[in-house]
Amino acid sequence: MCDHFHSHQLYTVAQVRELDRRAIEELGVPGFELMRRAAWAALSSLRRHWPQARRIAVYCGQGNNGGDGFLLAVLAREAGLQVDVFALNEASAGDAATARQAWKDAGGAVRLWRSSDALPTVDVHVDALYGTGLRRAPETSVAALIEAINASGTPVLALDVPSGLDADTGRTPGTAIRAERTVSFIAAKRGLHTGRAANVVGSLELDALGLPESLWRDVSPDARLLMPAHLPPRLRDANKGTNGHVLAIGGEHGMAGAIRLSGEAALRTGAGLVSVATRTEHLLALNAARPELMAHGVDGPQTLEPLLARANVLAVGPGLGQGAWSHALWLTALDSGKPLVLDADGLNLLAREPRRFTQQAVLTPHPGEAARLLGGTVAEVEADRFAAARALAHRFQAVVVLKGSGSLIANPDGRLNVCPWGNPGMAAGGMGDLLTGIVAALLAQGCDAWQAASLGVGLHARAGDCAARQGERGLLATDLLAPLRALCNGIDA
């Protein structure tokens, strides 16, 4: 994505339409001029990324997205490229009709796409089929075209949004174009950064089409992309007591690894002290593997309470289980009023016994856990991740991290951040346990819940990307610990 001043501000489709309206009606930029600028931006992107391309095919829908495609075809032909243009309909609407006529006036031919047609042999396919307004699955005939383009092995440039992707939510209700590159116009659409978007957007750039800063005045973004960040340098007279004491609670029989990962991540993120409350049987292994963790065997609330008294922040849930022992520790921890991070079985217990938090709290559900907390289904969560994250934050009065591709961080006041980092290699056991420890350590070092969740998600995902440089398959949670330490200190790992 380019470094345009609004490139980290994400907008809903309704907001983008309002920006379009303001550009036309208040700034006096005609709609056709915006279309022409979009076409120039698209051609510039195409020439930068495929400088050897000599022949392209442009697939145009009926609306303004198709109009962008027709004008791109005009400009590409003027630049010396061979251009094939396919349309879905006999006629276009509004400014797109003017753009279509401009292509014809330049001597170009428009072929109506038929499902029996074969794709031309070209260097780049240009997707201008659907714009930001599509919320349903593409029609059958268009779906067949999309699937043919995807199967062609030829790179695809998508204009504004890959056709078939919901630009508001990041879902794909049917088939969708898999672009190698997407050039988006005027404002960054939030749905291009979460959910299924990672499968179809490819590399993404934003072009504001030369519009002035005044266009965005009084239009607050719906969400923001995280920027790289780290903790400030420590004071020279810092000691372990000034860097917080995290108590990690979990590790039912056979799940010592989860609580160890959480505790070790808290240490690597800079917590001064980390205690672990777990089953007694795990103490020998924990002490041998990571002696810096102060591991304690607890058999119930009475043995947990002295540990709670010494801790500043709690990390509750990794490997906790949902039995009697687990529930007793969970309830005691939550009733302590200490700031906390709740994950895994800590969330499953919360789904059974909901409560609104009065202390600083961060919940870190994956979509399955989110569905249980909301009393719905995973499909409903994934249909609108933004709405689900905000609903959870409001329901529990906690900061919520909805994990997944394009993790979301939601505040009860409505603020929402989106994580642009992370990779499929992180879809492995133990990654969530690390995140719990990271966020807890940031809380212990003085961040509030919103800061800790936002910074923690970013550090976790960036560490995962560093660790995946040797390949995504086979990535282990512990592979993130070395780059995590570097990134926390502002060192490029």
TrEMBL record:
**Residue ranges constituting the YjeF N-terminal domain according to the UniProt record:** 16-217
Short name of one Pfam family: YjeF_N
Cite the binding residues for (6S)-NADPHX.
64-68, 131-137, 160, 258, 319, 366, 433
Cofactor(s) needed by this chain: K(+); Mg(2+)
Going by the UniProt record, its keywords in alphabetical order are:
ATP-binding, Isomerase, Lyase, Metal-binding, Multifunctional enzyme, NAD, NADP, Nucleotide-binding, Potassium
Q: How is the cofactor bound?
A: Binds 1 potassium ion per subunit.
Q: Where does K(+) bind?
A: N65, D127, S163
Give its E.C. classification number.
4.2.1.136, 5.1.99.6
Q: Which InterPro entries does the entry link to?
A: CARKD (IPR000631), Nnr (IPR030677), Ribokinase-like (IPR029056), YjeF_N_dom (IPR004443), YjeF_N_dom_sf (IPR036652)
- Which sites bind AMP? K403, G404, S405, G406, S407, G432
Domain YjeF C-terminal: from-to ranges: 223-491
According to its UniProt record, which reaction does this protein catalyse? (6R)-NADPHX = (6S)-NADPHX; (6R)-NADHX = (6S)-NADHX; (6S)-NADPHX + ADP = AMP + phosphate + NADPH + H(+); (6S)-NADHX + ADP = AMP + phosphate + NADH + H(+)
SUPFAM superfamilies assigned:
Ribokinase-like, YjeF N-terminal domain-like
Q: Supply the Gene3D superfamilies for this chain.
A: 3.40.1190.20, YjeF N-terminal domain
**PROSITE patterns xref list:** YJEF_C_3 (PS51383), YJEF_N (PS51385)
Provide the family line.
In the N-terminal section; belongs to the NnrE/AIBP family. In the C-terminal section; belongs to the NnrD/CARKD family.
User: Which NCBIfam families would you find in this protein's record?
Assistant: yjeF_cterm, yjeF_nterm
The record ties this protein, via HAMAP family, to: NADHX_dehydratase, NADHX_epimerase
Annotated PANTHER family: ATP-DEPENDENT (S)-NAD(P)H-HYDRATE DEHYDRATASE, ATP-DEPENDENT (S)-NAD(P)H-HYDRATE DEHYDRATASE FAMILY MEMBER
Task: Summarize subunit and interaction data from the UniProt record for this chain.
Answer: Homotetramer.
Tell me the function of this protein: Bifunctional enzyme that catalyzes the epimerization of the S- and R-forms of NAD(P)HX and the dehydration of the S-form of NAD(P)HX at the expense of ADP, which is converted to AMP. This allows the repair of both epimers of NAD(P)HX, a damaged form of NAD(P)H that is a result of enzymatic or heat-dependent hydration.
Protein name according to UniProt: Bifunctional NAD(P)H-hydrate repair enzyme
Give the species this sequence originates from.
Rhodanobacter hydrolyticus
